[in-house]
Amino acid sequence: MSESVQLDPVDWQILSILQDDASITNKALADRVGLPTSSCHERVRRLRTAGVIDGIRASVNPAAVGRGLQAFIAVRLRPHRRDMIESFTAAVLELPETLALYNVSGPEDFFLHVAVVDSTDLQRLIIDDLASRPEIAHCQTHLIFDRPLVTSMRPYPDTHTGPTTGWRNRGSTP
Amino acid sequence: MSESVQLDPVDWQILSILQDDASITNKALADRVGLPTSSCHERVRRLRTAGVIDGIRASVNPAAVGRGLQAFIAVRLRPHRRDMIESFTAAVLELPETLALYNVSGPEDFFLHVAVVDSTDLQRLIIDDLASRPEIAHCQTHLIFDRPLVTSMRPYPDTHTGPTTGWRNRGSTP
DNA sequence: AAGGACGCCCGGATAGAATCCGGATAATGA
DNA sequence: TCATTATCCGGATTCTATCCGGGCGTCCTT
């Protein structure tokens, strides 16, 4: 399912547009990439069934719903036992403040990305919901300044020397 | 623009569905929340113009395009000067490996979220593209195990005592 | 308390898009 | 060179998004 798929420049162009705004109509998308609607539609359908596009999602602006503050909380657990890891992740994913949880290597075990109302709310979250948990040994908080700078999935340039994801090069050279 | 908006339970229900799958048709969405299509459409339109929904985006599965490894790189800069911060962020956002860049408080200055082919590729990225930059004092890499657990933006339960985002409670009680 | 104004809900009509299908065409391998 | 296969592409049909007008409940004003 996640076998690396060969993508040609038009596919990447489609991905670039859809990652930025997937509410565009197929007709407008087709016009922008210079394809008939049916071909464009077929491309998108293929990208979805291949698992390259694994979902179309609405992104909610946390600040617009009163969550003006975001933070990363680096969490270190007590000597790891599988059941403790599972109870920790289950509890964290239930919290409405949680945006994402990353299990990472290094001195910290987890990076927890949260969106809260303000610093008071963050303090409450850490004290009541995290530090009180027995499986947590240590928490370090990193406030996120401004809005995170998010980019989209882009191809390596074709001059790239490392392991390549390949190109299909379907009839693009006249 | 980012003034906190009042949302009722139906709005949150719509947000929950659209954050999970925004490719759903308005008709199907309306059926799931128990509203006529026109009312549902109006709700969604309002959520978009209010900035609560700030975009509909396709999410690309990095593994499906040959980027099987993700990592956070915690970056510490040399004594901060604004121009150095700007040159650093500009350079990082140009890298095709960059997924997101967070400017954070704490001992580290930035968390850089990247998707690369494999550990060799990650090593190349750090050595060639990051450590070589004069404004970077230190990099600490945290490999991300498995797939990150991502949740969606959810409301606080109404029993929540902290600062509330409020409810509209539009005619939900017969 | 009564009146008025505003916002929201809702059904229907129309324009436009998504989707399917068959033939044409180019790439691939023997 | 020829057969095969995958993709491209145009058109027709079905479904959807979207707009519009009326009705109703609620809140504010006086």
UniProtKB/TrEMBL annotation, chains A, B:
<keyword id="KW-0804">Transcription</keyword>
<dbReference type="InterPro" id="IPR019888">
    <property type="entry name" value="Tscrpt_reg_AsnC-like"/>
</dbReference>
<keyword id="KW-0805">Transcription regulation</keyword>
<dbReference type="GO" id="GO:0043200">
    <property type="term" value="P:response to amino acid"/>
</dbReference>
<dbReference type="Pfam" id="PF01037">
    <property type="entry name" value="AsnC_trans_reg"/>
</dbReference>
<dbReference type="InterPro" id="IPR000485">
    <property type="entry name" value="AsnC-type_HTH_dom"/>
</dbReference>
<dbReference type="GO" id="GO:0043565">
    <property type="term" value="F:sequence-specific DNA binding"/>
</dbReference>
<protein>
    <submittedName>
        <fullName>Lrp/AsnC family transcriptional regulator</fullName>
    </submittedName>
</protein>
<feature type="region of interest" description="Disordered">
    <location>
        <begin position="154"/>
        <end position="174"/>
    </location>
</feature>
<keyword id="KW-0238">DNA-binding</keyword>
<dbReference type="InterPro" id="IPR011991">
    <property type="entry name" value="ArsR-like_HTH"/>
</dbReference>
<dbReference type="GO" id="GO:0005829">
    <property type="term" value="C:cytosol"/>
</dbReference>
<feature type="domain" description="HTH asnC-type">
    <location>
        <begin position="7"/>
        <end position="68"/>
    </location>
</feature>
<dbReference type="InterPro" id="IPR019887">
    <property type="entry name" value="Tscrpt_reg_AsnC/Lrp_C"/>
</dbReference>
<dbReference type="InterPro" id="IPR036388">
    <property type="entry name" value="WH-like_DNA-bd_sf"/>
</dbReference>
<feature type="compositionally biased region" description="Polar residues">
    <location>
        <begin position="161"/>
        <end position="174"/>
    </location>
</feature>
<dbReference type="InterPro" id="IPR011008">
    <property type="entry name" value="Dimeric_a/b-barrel"/>
</dbReference>
<dbReference type="InterPro" id="IPR036390">
    <property type="entry name" value="WH_DNA-bd_sf"/>
</dbReference>
<dbReference type="Pfam" id="PF13412">
    <property type="entry name" value="HTH_24"/>
</dbReference>
